[in-house]
Task: inverse folding
């Protein structure tokens, strides 16, 4: 499990686990550190997809289904033993949703809460710009990654920047295979959903979550751009709000 999951502070007596899904090209360096910020009632697992950090030499998943299968097979034991919630940012939302849907359909497991940040609801018509064609120059790719985050600064080391760009490209290819059609199915979830976004980021159509759960939907706008969650004040708000939601859930 250590290959897929980063857990910087184990909390065996935690009441709930928060599973974090990073953004395209991202790793565990930011969200995994939340494990030190939550109290002892919440243990944080951050997903580490192939193609980055300690998995740098591994091939990227061929499609979303492959990634979902790896995550669910590795985490199934932990997800069965105690309640869990999901936090996902940007395109990582679609990985978390696909995992949640698979867990519900195959194992009858459901998060106690979904915390979704800076992306459209998965059942809403959306368009991911395909800039990951093989003929794109690495310099163009790096420029796009930098532009995506606004004030998010890429590391100065050229090798690290190149690895981030390659991870972004690999993740984008996985995201392109994601699809979800609600059609006439009943709401797949019953848990509450909280949606966050930065005030300077683009407007996201998150209303679609109301069709996907029978739970309560909440929306919060915090100051900042696409990577608003990296600002210490916003991070503090997220930690407190997520803690309150989980502790108020029927665990």
Result:
């Amino acid at each position: 499990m250590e290959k897929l999951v980063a857990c910087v502070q184990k909390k065996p007596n935690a009441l709930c686990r928060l599973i974090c899904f990073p953004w395209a090209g991202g790793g565990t360096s930011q969200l995994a550190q939340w494990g030190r910020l939550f109290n002892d009632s919440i243990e944080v697992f951050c997903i580490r997809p192939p193609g980055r950090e300690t998995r740098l030499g591994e091939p990227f998943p061929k499609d979303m289904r492959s990634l979902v299968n790896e995550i669910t097979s590795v985490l199934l034991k932990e997800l069965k033993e105690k309640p869990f919630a999901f936090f996902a940012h940007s395109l990582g939302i679609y990985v978390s949703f696909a995992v949640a849907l698979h867990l519900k359909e195959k194992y009858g497991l459901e998060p106690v809460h979904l915390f979704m940040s800076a992306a459209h609801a998965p059942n809403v018509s959306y368009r991911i710009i395909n800039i990951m064609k093989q003929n794109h120059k690495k310099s163009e790719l790096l420029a796009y990654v930098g532009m995506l985050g606004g004030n998010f600064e890429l590391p100065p080391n050229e090798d690290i920047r190149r690895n981030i760009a390659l991870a972004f490209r690999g993740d984008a290819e996985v995201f392109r295979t994601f699809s979800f059609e609600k059609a006439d199915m009943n709401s797949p979830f019953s848990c509450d959903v909280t949606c966050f976004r930065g005030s300077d980021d683009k407007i996201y159509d998150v209303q679609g979550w109301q069709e996907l759960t029978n739970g309560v939907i909440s929306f919060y706008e915090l100051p900042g751009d696409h990577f608003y969650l990296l600002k210490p004040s916003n991070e503090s708000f997220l930690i407190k709000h997520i803690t309150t939601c989980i502790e108020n859930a029927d665990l």
Notes: The beta strands are 5-6, 16-21, 42-47, 84-89, 113-117, 192-198, 217-222. Residues 127-138, 146-151 have pLDDT under 50 and may be disordered. Residues 5-248 form a domain with the Rossmann fold fold (CATH 3.40.50.1820).
